[in-house]
Amino acid sequence: MFMTAVSTATGQIDSSELGNVLVHEHVFVVGEEFRENYQDDWDEDAKVADAVRDLTELKALGIDTILDPTVLGLGRYIPRIKRIAEQIDLNIIVATGVYTYNEIPFQFHYTGPGLLFDTEEPLVNYFVKDLTKGIADTGVQAAFLKCAIEEQGLTPGVERVMRAVGQASAQTGAPITVHTNPHTESGLVAQRVLAEEGADLTKVVIGHSGDSTDLDYLMKIADAGSILGMDRFGLDVLLPFDDRVNTVAELAKRGYADRMALAHDASCFIDWFDPEAKAQAVPNWNFRHISEDVLPALRERGVSDADITTMLVDVPRRYFE
C-alpha cells in the first residue's frame, strides 16, 4: 500500500502510523498579544500540564492523532505545542494558513499583487515555507493548510487567503481544511475557489459540515470529492447531539462513510469564553465525547465498525497520502 511521511510536532511519521484520527481539534486557542498584556493569571506550566493530562486521556480512549488547525488569527504558538507533544504518546499535526471571516491581517493589507507594495503573494511564500522548511525556528513543519469562510461570505480578505491556500496546496500537495458555515452553503464556494487555484478537492476537508442536517447540500460536497468534517460533536448549542449523530448515520447508510471525518473542534484551553460558563453551556464539548458517547450512538443506529474505522482511520490517512 502507498504510504507517505507526515510531519508532526515531534517529527515525521509514516501515514500508516496515524491510527485513529480526530481531524479538527485545537490544543490552545489563545490571543498571544492579549495574553501578554492582560491575562495576569496565566500560568504556563499549569496550562501545559492540563493539556498533557487531557491529551493523555484522549490517547487512552483510543485516539492516536489529532489535527490542530490553529493558524494565524487563532494564536498559533508552536514552542508550546512542541513542549506538550514531547510529553505524550499522541501525535499532534499542525497547520499553516490564516483564520479570518473578514479582513486580511494588517501585515498583508498593503503588500501583495496589485497593492501599494506590489509583490508576488507573500501568503503563498509563508505557507509553502511552513510546509516544506518548517515554522519559524521550531524545527516543526506544518502538514496541512487552513482557511475560513463564514456567514459574511467571500469577502476580499477571505478570498485572498483562500486563493493563497489553494495555490500553496497545488504547489506542495498539502491537504486543506476549511472552516465553513454550512447554512450559507459556503462549502460549495470554497470548493469552487480552491479548484480554480489547482487544489485537489479530494484533499479538502469542508469543516463544520456536521452543523447541518441538509443531506442534499452535504452530498453535493461529498460528490465533488471532498471530505465532510463532522467535526463539532459536543457543540450541541449549534446542533443537538441526536441531529449530529443521525446525519452521520444516514450518510453512512447512503455510502458516504469514505467521505466523512470526525472531531469535536474542542481545545485544552480557549480564551474566547469564561471556562466555567463554557463548561455549563456545552458540557459535552471535550475530547472524550466521541469515544464515550458518539461512537456508541452511531453503532446503535446501525453504523458498522468498518464504517467507523473508515471515518477515523482510512479517510484521514488518504487525506495525507
Automatic annotation (TrEMBL):
The keyword Transcription regulation does not apply. Zn(2+) 2 binds at K146, H179, H208. It holds the Pfam family PTE. Its cofactor is a divalent metal cation. Binds 2 divalent metal cations per subunit. It comes from the Bacteria. One of its GO terms (molecular function) is hydrolase activity. Zn(2+) 1 binds at H24, H26, K146, D265. Keywords: Hydrolase, Metal-binding. PANTHER family: PHOSPHOTRIESTERASE-RELATED (PTHR10819), PHOSPHOTRIESTERASE-RELATED PROTEIN (PTHR10819:SF3). This is Phosphotriesterase. It comes from Gordonia jinhuaensis.
